[in-house]
Amino acid sequence: MNYSTEVFGDVVVVHTPEELNEDQAVPFGTYVARLEQKKVVFDLDNTETIDSAGLKSLTDNQTRLRDKMGMLKIATTNATNRKILEITRLDLQLEVFDSVIDAVKSFR
Questions:
Q1: Pairing relation of β-strands 5-8 and 49-50?
Q2: Of 37, 38, 73, 101, which one is least surrounded by beta carbons within 10 A?
Q3: pTM of the model
């Protein structure tokens, strides 16, 4: 499965699927693991649903990238997704930005 991406220099922005759930978590993780870039931003703006498998996918991808000496950052203006990250306290484990531009710039 392919996901929409954009490349800004050495940073890749991956637009997460509409539903980041149990059905999507494994294929999404596989896709991210194949990326050559080590600086990755997940854009959660178009993601309508995130379940526990989706949240685990975020942390698993962060671990994979760290193992490759890379880094994951999250961008979202979606208030629901931001609240989910706050309630689960993942906003303390993942760097969360208000925009893709801010997340990409933070790598510099």
A1: unpaired
A2: 101
A3: 0.93
pLDDT tens column, 85-99: 999 999 999 999 999
Domains of the chain, each with CATH number or no CATH = 5-105 (3.30.750.24)
Q: Where are the alpha helices (DSSP H) in 1-108?
A: 22-33, 52-67, 79-87, 100-105
Measure the CA–CA gap between 53 and 74, rounded to whole angstroms: 17
- pLDDT tens-digit profile of 39-80? 999 999 999 999 999 999 999 999 999 999 999 999 999 999
Helices 52-67/22-33 angle, 10° precision = 10
Q: Which residues pair with 19 in a beta bridge?
A: 49
